[in-house]
Specification:
Largest sheet: 3 strands, antiparallel
Distance between the termini: 26 Å
Number of helices: 6
Strand content: 5-15%
Number of strands: 3
Strand order of the largest sheet: 1-3-2
Helix content: 55-70%
Length: about 120
């Protein structure tokens, strides 16, 4: 399942992927100041993510505890495929070629790519 999230919403998800469940106050402590957000902004983002069914909340005593409903790996896979589809017609080779043409691939990147290709070939 693909859920569209904004960059700001992803910051909330990142906090929950690192540790969950978290209360709204704990999430505010982790993300508000470093992003220049007010606590109300964090709460708005939590509500948006709840509506999108990307996170869930459970009331424990007098506070809601939030947890992600989507796995980080599934989210990254979906976002990566959408990115490749939008910009490179879904072709990974075109994406890598773009960086190679602009000389943005270093020796370490090339070695890592060779290793990935070798692993893919042996699978």
């Amino acid at each position: 399942m693909s859920i569209a999230v904004s960059d700001a919403e992803k910051i909330i998800l990142d906090a929950l992927w690192i540790e969950s469940p978290l209360t709204a106050e704990q999430i505010v402590d982790r993300v508000a100041a470093v992003n220049g957000w007010e606590p109300t902004t964090v709460r708005t983002l939590l509500n948006r993510l709840m509506k999108k069914e990307a996170i869930a909340a459970e009331r424990v005593e007098r506070k809601y505890h939030y947890r992600p409903l989507i796995e980080r790996s599934a989210f990254l896979k979906s976002e990566s495929q959408a990115f490749l589809g939008r910009l490179f017609d879904g072709k990974l080779a075109s994406f890598v070629s773009h960086f190679a043409e602009d000389r943005q691939l270093g020796a370490k990147d090339i070695e890592a790519l060779k290793k990935l290709i070798k692993e893919a070939e042996s699978d």
